[in-house]
Amino acid sequence: MESSLEFSNSFTSVSSPSARCRIFKIIVIGDSGVGKTCLTYRFCAGEFLDRTEATIGVDFRESLVEVEGEKIKLQLWDTAGQERFRKSMVQQYYRNVHAVLFIYDVTRPDSFRGLPAWIEECRRYSLGQEITRFLVGNKSDLRDTCSCDPRSIKVEGQVTRDQAQKFAVAHGMILFETSAKSLPGGGGESGGGHQDSVEDVFMALASRLKRQTRPPPPVLNNTGVSGSYCGSYTGTSSFRLPAKKNPQKDFWTCTC
Ligand SMILES: Nc1nc2c(ncn2[C@@H]2O[C@H](COP(=O)(O)OP(=O)(O)OP(=O)(O)O)[C@@H](O)[C@H]2O)c(=O)[nH]1
Questions:
Q1: pLDDT of 178-221, one tens digit each?
Q2: How far apart are the first and last CA of the chain?
Q3: I need a labelling partner for 125 at 20 to 30 A (CA). Which of 101, 153, 184, 210 fits?
Q4: In this structure, which residue's CA is closest to atom 9 in ligand 1?
Q5: Is this prediction's pTM over 0.80?
Q6: What ipTM is given for this predicted complex?
Q7: Closest protein CA for atom 21 of ligand 1
Q8: Distance of CA 218 to the CA centre of its chain
Q9: pLDDT tens digits, residue range 223-250?
């Protein structure tokens, strides 16, 4: 059967013949509706995506960032939270991953309680604590304002930073609380607690990945677009994975 590659993009591409960059594959996972699409879109497109539909399969976004003079490409795999939209694709998600972002919604404890299942799924695909893992509580703009110290008071119906921090430590993750909706610089403090910007989260991730000394596993070029889009761009795009397997290529570095 021929590959059924569907690809549409909204990249703005500035070619840069001499630039070399490392590419890191990051999968973004968590329950449906926690804001995976909004977070990745916010980082890549710089704005809040007002209307979203449940992701089917995977959406694919990329952003080229610069960390201490080195260009790094973050390839974000925004995966479907709903089981029925994941199914046959799951194996592809977990191949050659450099980092995992576990997302929950700070206003939905059920999405926090769902995290062990996502960790277990990662473990089944051999992604353990040796992989860079960030825990991201999203929708902090919706956190109830409370004059009390949010680290010690459990706000009914919400996941406190303290709970999340304990979970993060127990699972070798770094915790961020953020909002895909908040305006940059608007509301750094939410409910008396600290709120990270979406940019902070992804730049911290890029920094962390940059420091990786050993070459990460190669990124599978499922889309066939990585090579052709190596350059200076950020963008957002969706694709369906090919129906048949593509040969793996080493995209540890690319010459644009
Ligand atoms: N207030 C607020 N709403 C948000 C935020 N992030 C996402 N949302 C809303 O939450 C809903 C779900 O967001 P999505 O980004 O589609 O969630 P998802 O995790 O990608 O969902 P699936 O694709 O089903 O896995 C949408 O209505 C968004 O507008 C946020 O930071 N703050």
A1: 999 987 655 444 444 568 999 999 999 999 999 875 554 554 44
A2: 32
A3: 210
A4: 35
A5: no
A6: 0.99
A7: 33
A8: 18
A9: 333 322 333 334 455 444 443 333 333 3
